[in-house]
């Protein structure tokens, strides 16, 4: 049985949790989070009504700011071309070698510490699309890297049982290698205006439907414009859709309620004494050029719009928000390389000839919640002090929000430029999260085992 069976809605959020956000997460069938920001108790709270939780890890790249992981890497963990490491200057990250047993061990430890130990249901593996993007023209290296990824997945299954595993992009790799080992694949930039008119996309929809029928692999889609149209297209295709408009760093409160969800039969959840009270809203859709990637080696990103605020039904408790980062994705995404149908290859023993990618990039822009309004003031002195403290906090929050917005805007610009360059989806990257979660002090302890 696929652990994603019954999932009708989901949301990706890499910011820090608040009491209101934790409560609203219970309205979704699935949420994808940055596990570093959550305690085991908070994860249990999210899951109290049956919500499934996936924790982010990066599989194919590592960023230089991630000093914890970088210090553990050996020379064979990096992918080298002509004797040189492959470096992505925009993100200051390096392509890594998933065929390296040592590197696989680091990732398995990350799953243990940040996912399994916290009671999270599974992993969302970003940057898998690097394999197709970087090695499609080198069959020998391509097979080596795919076999390495399969070996890593098999070890994860052997150690951690039936945890959910979802890969980001890597459609050819899914079809030829990983379908028997994963439960889902994510397709970012699933925007109706381009998907409907693009032959590659139409063909890929059919391929993913066939993979699901054979191996039970669910497709999760994300749009950044035309929310209603994209959602309908995804639903008609049998996919699970989420409209992302704010770089994965601002929680979109009230988009879903289990009690009012019109989609068929949501997942079974524990009874609750309090019905969900939010109404469904739709993010504004924008028109953009056709998303299609060139053979760029750099990860693409998602566009970001002004973040929506949480509904008043939830307590306005605030916590420090997430690190600034490029937009998702993971945050956004990349488009996929021109698919070539191949027969699924049995995972082979990995060799360490050429390193591939593992992105420990856990960048995150900091979403900022508004400061609480002072409800009552009995003492004038205390009131003034509180007003002054609130004013200072508000000023600080605005500064952080402006910084996050600027970062997301920069990410969106890169994303638009990358996807407007071609219409045939060459070199799909799928580095959604690596784009969303950029250089921030909060991630310097990532991969700290």
Topology:
Layout: E1 10-13, H1 19-25, E2 30-33, H2 40-46, E3 52-58, E4 61-63, H3 67-70, E5 80-81, E6 84-85, E7 87-88, E8 93-95, H4 101-114, E9 122-126, H5 130-135, H6 139-160, E10 164-168, H7 171-178, E11 184-187, H8 192-195, H9 199-215, E12 218-223, H10 227-236, E13 240-243, H11 380-419, H12 432-436
Parallel strand pairs: 1-2, 2-3, 3-9, 9-10, 10-11, 11-12, 12-13
Antiparallel strand pairs: 4-8, 5-6, 7-8
Low-confidence stretches: 259-380, 407-429, 433-449
Strand order of the largest sheet: 1-2-3-9-10-11-12-13
Report the β-strand fraction as a percent range. Answer: 5-15%
Q: Separation of termini? A: 32 Å
Count the DSSP helices.
12
Sheet having the most strands: 8 strands, parallel
What general form does the structure show? globular
The helix/strand order is EHEHEEHEEEEHEHHEHEHHEHEHH
Mean pLDDT: 73
What is the structural class? alpha/beta
Rg of Cα set: 21 Å
Question: Helix proportion of residues, in percent?
Answer: 25-40%
